[in-house]
Amino acid sequence: MELLHNLGIDWRLLLAQIVNFLVLLFVLYKFAYGPVLKLLNERTEKIEKGLKDAEEAQKKLTEIEKKEKDVLTEARKQAQEIVAKAEGMAAKNKEEIIANAKAQSEKILADAEKKLELERTQMMQDVKKQVANLVAMAAEKVIEEKIDDKKDKELIEKAIK
Amino acid sequence: MTISLAPEPLFHIGNFIVTNTLIVTLALSAIIIAASFAMRSRLQLVPKGFQNVFEYVIEAVLGLVDSVTQNREQSKKFFPIVMTIFLFVILSNWVELIPGLGTVGVYGEHHGENVLIPFLRSSSADLNVTLAIALISVFTIQFMGIAAIGAAKYAGKFFVSPFHKPYFIGTFVGILELISEIAKIISFSFRLFGNIFAGEVLLIVMLNLVPYFVPLPFLFLELFVGFVQALVFAMLTLVFLKMAVTETSH
After folding, report:
1. Among B29, B39, B45, beta carbon nearest to A20
2. What three-state secondary structure class fits B99?
């Protein structure tokens, strides 16, 4: 006890210091460490969540980009197919139309020729008939006498041959 | 120039002696508590200014505790006592750097002599303070050990039956462990007391020998010593805590 007294240890002071430190510990625990640790935890959670969200968004974005690309290539392929089909159809149509037109024009041409031929022969016949009449009249006038019909006809025909 | 191993009494309240170190201790506690309240009222999720510093310190210490415990849950349990010891001890140690220490005071009767009684005395240079913290530290260690692994298992660390594998060696080691638990109190309190008391004496002596410039390097030295001692106190408490909550593997 003499040693403790020489070192300045006094149980009342010791007790006071212990109580003081415990109070300090309690107050700091309650009002400083607790809130700060809670805050740090909260922030860590928030940051982690933010990072996770960002990562997810990035993932989704790349996914969407890939999908977009796929859709685009698909669309392009389809468009090409359609164009190719249309081209094929157009070519076929063109040939058909041309063939039709040709056939029709040929037909028209043939018809016209036929008609022309018909008209010409008819015209020829008419002319022949008229000429025969004319010649007959002229001959009648010239000879002023009618030989018999038979001879007449013979003569005319001889003349116009 | 007077050097007293014991803190100097300033006045009495009834039977209770109020010493200069008690005043310093109370002032320090008040400052720490006021600072913590000031900080708490300005706590924000997005840190600004001083909060950054505070959070940085807390995170650094928590990381340090983590590196010893390797376990976040345990770290959270140990953190308050370790941090408080560190804060309180480092501030107590650095009180000796305040100008006027050991020199500003009143003349009074002390051990039958008329001597200068300084108002300020580093609270770590008072065995009552260091012993108080050491007692709290060691009791916390025992308490945490019992809470973590159970009273029976914890007692089994010290009282080993001589009829099992290491026989009498185990029993002997157990008793040594028990003695070392008590020795912890003494080593904790006297290490801190010795370092800071010596530093204080050194500073007073240097100031008396050469008042200008020469004490400066010693001030820096004491700044460093104060930090190291606080760190040692806190880290030892932490390591002992970890040892106490770990079961023996035999």
Report:
1. B29
2. coil
